[in-house]
Amino acid sequence: MNKIIFSLLGILFITACSDDSSSDAKNPASTGNDNNEVTSCDYTFECESAIHVKNGVLYTDNDSIIFSGPFLHTATKDDWKLSSFMKRLEETYWTSFTLKDTLLTETQAEENQHHAVFKLSADDQITFASFSNQESILSFVTDSYNECKQDPYCYLMYQNRLDGSAIDSTSIKNDVQNFTKLRSLNLEGESTCKLTNTKCKKDRYVTD
């Protein structure tokens, strides 16, 4: 009778171990409690689009557009704001990214993937069309700097660019060039970010 009981217990033990190993194989980011191992992973998402925008900076394959703080903060044409426009671009045109030292389920990984389409609004088109030459863009930039000087918060933030009554002409020149480049780009398109690589590691820890 004892031999029969021990045989049955052995079968149950083997079945339990088999089930645990099968679960870990399906999820490389699972935790193996039996051997005191914790798994963490780096998830890399690659984003494909003609342009990428991050922290207010627009990147192309061989160039970038960086607006000065005073211009980006105050540039407004009627109800159109440059800062809001750049945020809209950034919401669509993600840059590639990696989530480090974390654990994601398959569902969470899919939720971090991204697909979006950007279209110019009627206000975007009207605003860009209104700047038909360099003189109009220069006036737009200069007026924005003057407005920043009159705004206590903006002036406090960017006073290094606003030296009393004199305005940094180099900074204005760069903003004119960058706004001109922005108008010349084809900003309509789509962005797709997919999980392309998962790299996992196991760190042993000691228990009492």
Hey, roughly how much beta strand do the residues contain? 25-35%
Helix share bin:
40-55%
Please write the string of helix (H) and strand (E) elements. Answer: HEEEEHEEHEHEHHHEEHE
| Radius of gyration, taken over Cα atoms and rounded to an integer in Å | 28 Å
Please state the overall shape, judged from the principal axes of the Cα atoms: elongated
Oligomer: single chain
Given as residue ranges, the uncertain stretches (5+ residues, pLDDT < 50) are 1-36
Mean pLDDT: 83
- The biggest beta sheet, please? 4 strands, antiparallel
Structural class category = alpha+beta
Q: Walk across the major sheet and give the strand order.
A: 7-1-11-8
**Individual helix count:** 8
Q: Could you tell me how far the N terminus lies from the C terminus, measured between alpha carbons in angstroms?
A: 38 Å
Q: How many β strands by DSSP?
A: 11
Structure in words:
- The model is unreliable at 1-36 (pLDDT under 50).
- The protein has 208 residues and is of the alpha+beta class.
- It is built from 8 helices and 11 strands.
- The protein has helices spanning 2-26, 69-74, 82-92, 106-111, 122-130, 134-150, 152-158, 169-184, and strands at residues 37-48, 52-54, 57-59, 64-65, 76-77, 80-81, 97-102, 114-118, 162-163, 166-167, 189-204.
- Helix 6 packs across helix 8.
